[in-house]
Amino acid sequence: MLSEFGRSGVTRVAHPLATFLVRMGVTANGITLTGLVLTCGAAITLFGTGHLVAGAIVIAACTLLDLIDGAVARAGDGGSPYGALVDAVSDRVADGVILASLVWWVVSADPGNGYALGMLLACLVLSQVVSYSKARGDAGGLRTPGGLMERADRLVLVLLGAGLEGLGVPWALEVAITAVAVGSLITVVQRVWGGRADYLDRLRPAEAPAAGER
Q1: Which 3 state secondary structure label does DSSP give 18?
Q2: Is residue 126 a contact partner of residue 177, using CB atoms and an 8 Å limit?
Q3: Rounded to whole angstroms, how far apart are CA atoms 192 and 210?
Q4: Which residues of 105-120 are buried (b: 16+ CB within 10 A; e: fewer)?
Q5: Would you call 198 a catalytic residue per the annotation?
Q6: Residues 38-95: pLDDT tens digits?
Q7: Do residues 101 and 47 touch, judged by C-beta distance below 8 A?
Q8: Looking at the whole model, is its pTM more than 0.90?
């Protein structure tokens, strides 16, 4: 949802910076990989050790690079299939490390919190399935909807929940990851159902033209 509404505004803001970076010889893949390393490092060293507020702030700042790399690609060579592959794989790795770091923290700090562990593991699995369902549908030529909860939505909720948890707000993390897990499940269903509908539409024979149109 956030991706659909915010993409055009981000593109307008990032375009001047992206043009400057292209002139400086910066590549989109370089930005993507830098953001991946910084995000994973922040997640492991901050989330993994219980510094939830600092982790949420630093990771949120790192994700700005994920917004810029696409703009740089468009301002440079217009983007490439290889660049899209690097970006998609980097996003999946970053998401996995962020959630795994939170799992590590819960296991260390509150091992009896089975609910949080269960929801985090559900988020870890479903976030990957959400992305895979879109990629597999596209590979098969099927139109699939964006759905209720795309990556930006999941990331905002997880970082917000972790940050509030670090500030001492009760159940903040549990509420956030529950919303992510449920929303991700709904998104998977939406995408599979949307792909099915598109497939069935293609199987229907085209309507015969009216007599006057022949």
Answers
A1: helix
A2: no
A3: 35
A4: bbeeeeeeeeebbebb
A5: no
A6: 999 999 999 999 999 999 999 999 988 877 877 777 777 666 788 889 999 999 999 9
A7: yes
A8: no
Q: Chain-centre distance of CA 173, in angstroms?
A: 18
Rg of the chain's alpha carbons, rounded to an integer?
20
With a CB cutoff of 8 Å and minimum separation 6, the contacts of 178 are: 119
Please tell me the total number of residues recorded for the chain in this structure. 214
Using alpha carbons, select from 123, 136, 97, 140 the residue that is nearest to residue 180: 123
Catalytic-role residue among 91, 95, 138, 153: 91
Tell me: the pLDDT tens digits for 141-194? Answer: 998 888 899 999 999 999 999 999 999 999 999 999 999 999 999 999 999 999
Look at residues 80, 81, 68 and name the one whose alpha carbon lies nearest to residue 34: 68
Pick from 193, 117, 179, 115: nearest CA to 149: 179
Single-letter residue type at 26:
V
Structure tokens at 2: 């956030």
DSSP result, 71-119: HHHHHTT---HHHHHHHHHHHHHHHHHHHHHHHHHHHHH-TT-HHHHHH
CB atoms within 10 A of CB 205: 5
